Structure formats: structure tokens, C-alpha cells
Amino acid sequence: MAETTDATGYHSLVTLLESIEVGLVVIDLDYRVQMWNGFMENHSGVNASRLLGQSLFEQFPELPRAWLIRKVQSVITLNTRTFTSWEQRPYLFRFRNTRPVTGTEEYMFQNLTISPLTGPDGQVEQVCLMIYDVTDIASGRRALEHANKQLERLSSTDRLTGLLNRGTWENLLDAEFERYRRYGHNTVLVMFDIDHFKPINDTHGHLIGDEVIREVALITREALRQADRPGRYGGEEFAIILPETDIDGALVICERIRETIAETAVETDHGPIHCTVSMGLVKLTDSAENYMQWLQQADEALYRAKKAGRNRSVVSGSD
């Protein structure tokens, strides 16, 4: 009677292990497969009868062999389980994602538990790999992180131009000023605005004015280096931080922007519109006690450019 009960219990246990929604893989100390449950069959497409007694790495050469051996050996040596989340390694077995809710994910994200299986003498004889499908959790987390990044980007950029907005750009300007005070590197600030912009708005309307602003921003962004920091300061006024740049190099960049804008026609329903910009440049020196004074110096150079006839670049302190 006891034998019948034991047999029934064993059969029930096997049935349970075959049906649970967790991958179970048992390997011996030579990494030969001793158990491969229904979850693993369904997602790998490989039957247990084909795998039993076979080398796990020969059957699945894409597995991270060195990483998995290191993990398993630690479990054997310490005789204690270990856990790895999808955030550390997205998956162990490269299974296709079959969940309709998270269909945007190409592969199944997995958590992994590696447990020692000991014999009667307490020595580790086998190791069990438990694979958990956490695609729903991972997909939700990744979507949330993406949304947060989008919100962060939207909160720091100007919606019309895609450049940094004034608040974010001024924070960078302050940081650049502090970096200069510490290291004394070359850095140049540029302020510029669109010449005679009000008549464009008054004549053609604000939508056309927005098109002109967008085009000027696009030309500016394409002319700059990755480390440069352009921003929309307000209305038709723009600003650029040029780190690790002397005044001669900054002038070359500004003239390239200014000339390209002057030569570019903004195509609108009312016909092409041409515009020009005036630019003021100032190299950061010890004469500025804070970033606001540095900004004021650039604004004064811009004023001089406009007073001198517009469509030109003027360096602070030059004739």
C-alpha cells in the first residue's frame, strides 16, 4: 500500500513539473541534461527525449557558456542557490516571445534561479535551472523607462525647434562657467537672433514665422559638433555654448551658420522667404564673475552686430 502511495505521489509530482509555467532544466555536473520539462519543450521546440543525456552546450551552442559555467560552479562550490534577473541578463535561452500583450518584445525576458540538488551524503550531484518568463514585467518596465525618458526630453527641449529650452540651456551655461573656473579651458558663448523678424510675422502670420524659426534651428544644429550646446533663448533669439573652442574657431562656426541661413530660402505657401541673422560672440574670461555676466557680454556683442547693420558676426571687445 505504501509503494502504491509513493508511486502515485511521484507520478503527481512529475505531472506537476511538466505542466507548471516555469522552465525546469536539470543537468549533471558534466552539463548533460537530466530533465527538460514541458515549458522548455514548448518554447524551444525540442523534445525531452532528444535531449536527455546530451550536453546542454552542444545542443544549445548560443548559450553564454563561460557565464553559465561560472554561475553553476559557484552554486556547486557553495552548495547554495543563486538568482539572476532579466535586468542583469535579458535571457538565458533565446526563446521567442509568444505573449500577445507584450508582442512588441522579440524575445522572452527571463529570470533565472540556479539551485543545487544534493545526494544522500549532502554532496551536490545535479543542478536545477529554473527559468521564469517575466516578459510582461520587463516590457512594462521598459515602456515606463522609455516614457520617462520622453517626458524628460520634452521637459528640456523647445517644442517648436527641438533645441534645448531656455531653462535647460541656462543650466548648462552655468555648469560650463563653473567648469571654466575650475579648469580654465577655452569656451565661447554665442547669442544671435533673426533680423527683422517682426515684419515676417506681421506680413505672413505666425505659422510662417514658426517655419522660419524651425529652419534657422535646423541649420544651426546641423552646423554644430556633438559637444556644442544650442538652445532657443526665446522668440527668435538663439544661443550656443561652444566648449573647448577658441574665438577664431567659434567665428568660423558662426560664419558658416550665418552664411547658410542667408543663402537658404524657407519655402512656404506664400513663396520663398529669406532671412538673415546677427551674431554676438564672447570668449569666457575672468572678467565675468558669473554666467549671467558672461551672457550679458554676449548680448552686448549681439547688439553691436545689429547696430552695425545686421547680418554679421561681432566678437566682444573687437572694433
From TrEMBL:
<dbReference type="InterPro" id="IPR050469">
    <property type="entry name" value="Diguanylate_Cyclase"/>
</dbReference>
<feature type="domain" description="PAS">
    <location>
        <begin position="9"/>
        <end position="60"/>
    </location>
</feature>
<protein>
    <recommendedName>
        <fullName>diguanylate cyclase</fullName>
        <ecNumber>2.7.7.65</ecNumber>
    </recommendedName>
</protein>
<keyword id="KW-0808">Transferase</keyword>
<dbReference type="InterPro" id="IPR000160">
    <property type="entry name" value="GGDEF_dom"/>
</dbReference>
<dbReference type="InterPro" id="IPR013656">
    <property type="entry name" value="PAS_4"/>
</dbReference>
<keyword id="KW-0418">Kinase</keyword>
<dbReference type="Pfam" id="PF00990">
    <property type="entry name" value="GGDEF"/>
</dbReference>
<dbReference type="InterPro" id="IPR035965">
    <property type="entry name" value="PAS-like_dom_sf"/>
</dbReference>
<dbReference type="Pfam" id="PF08448">
    <property type="entry name" value="PAS_4"/>
</dbReference>
<dbReference type="InterPro" id="IPR029787">
    <property type="entry name" value="Nucleotide_cyclase"/>
</dbReference>
<dbReference type="GO" id="GO:0052621">
    <property type="term" value="F:diguanylate cyclase activity"/>
</dbReference>
<dbReference type="InterPro" id="IPR043128">
    <property type="entry name" value="Rev_trsase/Diguanyl_cyclase"/>
</dbReference>
<dbReference type="GO" id="GO:0016301">
    <property type="term" value="F:kinase activity"/>
</dbReference>
<feature type="domain" description="GGDEF">
    <location>
        <begin position="185"/>
        <end position="318"/>
    </location>
</feature>
<dbReference type="InterPro" id="IPR000014">
    <property type="entry name" value="PAS"/>
</dbReference>
